[in-house]
UniProtKB/TrEMBL annotation:
Residues 7-123 form the Histidine kinase/HSP90-like ATPase domain. This is Histidine kinase/HSP90-like ATPase domain-containing protein. Keywords: Kinase, Serine/threonine-protein kinase, Transferase. The keyword Iron-sulfur does not apply.
Length: 128
């Protein structure tokens, strides 16, 4: 099991990305799949940093959980902020994170409420 809770900053998201990669290496995931998991999780963490906590004051929490059992790897990213529907601007490279998460994983579950947003990313048959 993997679990970290940090203030939602870009620096912490980058550090958590590296820690997640190390944990996945220990599970024996092949390099390509490990890269997919890390990239999808980082996109979810970047969304927390960019969108969950707007306004003055310290960043709220970013929680990253990893669970591996029976060949399935599940990564959960959650915050205690408020969901804001992404704005898409013509010619913008922004707003592609959720689509990327769907492409890189077997399943994406998203739940948003007044208490925050949780994204669960699932890979089946991820490891032996």
């Amino acid at each position: 099991m993997f679990h970290h809770r940090e203030p939602a900053t870009a620096t912490n998201a980058s550090r958590l990305r590296a820690a997640l990669g190390a944990w996945l290496r220990g599970l024996g995931l092949n390099h390509d799949l490990r890269d997919d998991v890390v990239l999808a999780a980082y996109e979810a963490m970047a969304n927390v940093v960019d969108h969950a906590y707007r306004g003055p004051g310290p960043a709220g929490p970013l929680e990253l959980h990893g669970h591996a059992h029976g060949g399935t790897c599940t990564i959960t990213v959650s915050d205690r902020g408020r969901w804001r529907r992404p704005r898409t601007e013509s010619g913008s490279f922004r707003g592609r994170g959720l689509g990327m998460m769907h492409e890189l994983s077997d399943e994406v579950l998203m739940r948003s409420s007044e208490q925050g947003t949780t994204i669960r990313l699932i890979w089946r048959r991820a490891y032996a």
